[in-house]
Amino acid sequence: MNGYPHSSNLRIPTLSELPLPLRLTLALFLLSVGIGYISALVQLHFQHASPGALLPSPEDAVRVFHGAVDEKPKSKIEQLLPEDYQGKKMNGQGQMTAAFFKRSEDYSEAITERARELAKKQGVKKPDKALKEAAQAEVDRERDGERLAMIAWVRSGAKETEYKDDNFPLPPDLSQLTITRQMLVEQNGEIAEPRAVKIQTLFQQRCATCHQDGGEAQNFPLTNYAEIKKYAAVKTSEGMSLEKLAQTTHVHLLGFSMLYGLTGLILALSSYPRLVRIVLCPLPLLAQIVDISFWWLARLPEPQGPMFARCIVYSGAVVAVGLLLHIVLSLFNLFRVKGWLILVLLFAAAGYAGHEAKMRVIDPFIAQEKSTNTGEK
After folding, report:
1. Whether pTM exceeds 0.70
2. Domain residue limits, the chain
3. Phi and psi dihedrals of 13, rounded to 5?
4. pLDDT in tens, 7-52
5. What region, left, alpha or beta, does residue 24 occupy, with left being phi > 0 and alpha being psi -120 to 50 degrees?
6. Which of 65, 85, 154, 354 is a plausible cystine mate for 298, CB 3.0–4.6 Å?
């Protein structure tokens, strides 16, 4: 009637019927998406997985999205300064206690100087192994005292006057705490009584070196009271902040949805049975919506919050499997028998390369990462 054929007469070509240049372009797009997703898994390891683990476990998901279970609410500073920090990554979701020990710029120098002092007291010219170990033990006790003093200041209300005066009187239960002398308030060349900690100096020496412009953690500055106060406030949840959760949700729903939508549309043009396409084409998109819903539901109080947090690992796995099926099934439908042989050889080569990478690169890296975090102190 209007010069156009009736819609019922239109037939959309399947993937294998498309021109070769278009099929090659779609194939490379699918392979690129697969490689990109693998890089996202690598990033996931560095962000959330426990040291020695390839990918985050359900308990890692609870820690990241809900926070520690069965513990009273803590400020971010106290949360990141646990006594038992070995085996946890040094980042905003793990720990920062290592900043008082091996990650402190003057840690090795302090041990060396203490070993010389001990050798001098014993009339020995050069410190032996035993003296070096004794020196490290003394320095470690003092550094742990610094950690406890910082937590005590935060728990006492993180008063601005104490920070600006660089003078935090230690509470009675910590009055005899062993602390690095340079961090104690002095009067007439002697340690003042009652004892007090130079709390501003402590933050500058142990935190600001990284948490300032040009530092490793410059995006989370801790150079003045206003910046520190934000992390000293007690929060009801120790999991991912609302700000970061909203940002991550935004990135995933916009960025990854476009990829899953495109790979789903490609599979929809395949010649597989209609029911298979109806189930698989929207699967990653639907699973991602469920997955992100679990992120937010994980913020609920116990026991619901941790339960939803553990589900994140499994909903994320469904997303990954759905995307894998999109890529593999679409690639095989793009080409005929000769193309299948090439794809089989390609996947076999990728499998061999993945195996070699795991044995020669990934496993040694995971083992080194685990041993490094175990012996951080």
Report:
1. no
2. 16-67+239-335, 76-232
3. -65, 145
4. 556 778 889 889 989 999 999 999 999 999 998 888 888 888 887 7
5. alpha
6. 65
